[in-house]
Amino acid sequence: LTVLNAGRRYLKVEDLSGKVFVTSGLGGMSGAQAKAAVIAGCVGIIAEVDEAALLKRYKQGWLMEISNNLDHCIARLRDARKNKIALSLGYHGNVVDLWERLVYELDATGELLVDLGSDQTSCHNPFSGGYYPVQLSFEEAKQLLSTSPGKFRTLVQESLRRQVTAINRLADKGMFFWDYGNAFLLEAQRAGADVEKRGANKTEFRYPSYVQHIMG
């Protein structure tokens, strides 16, 4: 319902075939995002740093395909988008790399390859394993978390700023991004990312909450 209503509200379409939804997180309830994309008929690319979580969703049938290669992900995205094939593709990697690759494709080809975007990392708990920084591998980040939590926190906040910079660039070209109530925008704001709504008070964000804007 969230994905369908996002299409209705932001893209003004009932049919999401050929549309692309990019998000992250395949643990807990966020595993449903891949299934939702296929039910809605769109192309869903979901990033996950934890291979165990990714493989679990794949074996359960929530994901149609998995890949750890961004070149392959972009090629599959383009093909499914062109041919209007419903697809759920799990990217084993950091979502920041995925967002930045989409910006690269925009700059290189002029193509905006994503229509809808969100995030379901556990940003209510970003400094204790709910969000992993793009600068390190998953294993390296877990090690740093245990040995130097202060450094881990710094890298998380830097990663959040990079993620928002990429999202903002794509949103300026027409992608519609929403917050899933996972504190992503709040933690991004605390990290100094550009997420505040222009001309509004400090508690308002430039991107909407799915509760108020999509489900409400």
- CATH homology superfamily name: Urocanase like domains
Any idea what the radius of gyration is? 16 Å
Strand content: 5-15%
Shape: globular
| Contiguous uncertain segments of 5+ residues | none
Helix content: 40-55%
Output the number of helix runs.
10
Instruction: Quickly give the CATH architecture.
Output: 3-Layer(aba) Sandwich
Structural write-up:
With 216 residues, the protein is of the alpha/beta class. The chain has one domain (1-215): Urocanase like domains (Rossmann fold), CATH 3.40.50. It is built from ten helices and six strands, in the order H-E-H-E-H-E-H-E-H-E-H-H-H-E-H-H. It has helices at 2-11, 32-40, 51-60, 70-83, 95-109, 126-130, 138-147, 149-172, 184-190, 210-215, and strands at 20-24, 43-48, 65-67, 87-92, 116-117, 176-177. Strand 3, helix 4 (70-83) and strand 4 form a beta-alpha-beta unit. It is globular, with a radius of gyration of 16 Å. The model has no long low-confidence stretch (mean pLDDT 93). Residues 2-214 form the Urocanase Rossmann-like domain. This is HUTU hydratase. GO terms for molecular function: urocanate hydratase activity.
